[in-house]
Amino acid sequence: MEYRIESRDDGTARVIFNGDITFSENVAFRQLLKDLSEKNIEACVFDLSAVEMVDSAGLGMFLIAKEQADTGGWKLSVSGAQGHVASMLKLTKLSDLLEG
């Protein structure tokens, strides 16, 4: 998993992911959350259009991100999920929690 954070002047950020989001990426994901917490954002979109696979740990990481967003007072949503990733988000109802 690789990611790039694009910050905008309007207080929003977009995180563009590339690669799978799995248990082995939890250290990198926690770094991402740390990077986001240091920014003064009102909303963040996780762009999953280049992610082909997410496992149960990856789904758990999204929940941790949602909790951090709620605690930090910013809105988190996802966009671009397709195929396996979209199915997993829908199956677990995370798509409802992280509406884009």
Descriptive overview:
A 4-stranded mixed sheet has the order 1-2-3-4. It has one domain: Transcription Regulator spoIIAA (2-Layer Sandwich). It is globular, with a radius of gyration of 12 Å. It is 42% helix and 26% strand. Helix 1 packs parallel to helix 2.
How many discrete domains?
1
**The CATH top-level class label:** Alpha Beta
Number of strand elements: 4
User: How widely separated are the two ends?
Assistant: 21 Å
Which percent range fits the helix content? 40-55%
Strand residue content: 25-35%
SSE topology string: EEHEHEHH
Radius of gyration: 12 Å
Tally of DSSP helical segments: 4
| Gross morphology | globular
What profile does the largest beta sheet have?
4 strands, mixed
Give, in spatial order, the strands making up the sheet with the most strands: 1-2-3-4
- Give the structural class: alpha/beta
- The low-pLDDT segments are none
Second rung of CATH, namely the architecture: 2-Layer Sandwich
Mean pLDDT: 94
> CATH H-level name... which superfamily?
STAS domain
Q: What fold name goes in the CATH topology slot?
A: Transcription Regulator spoIIAA
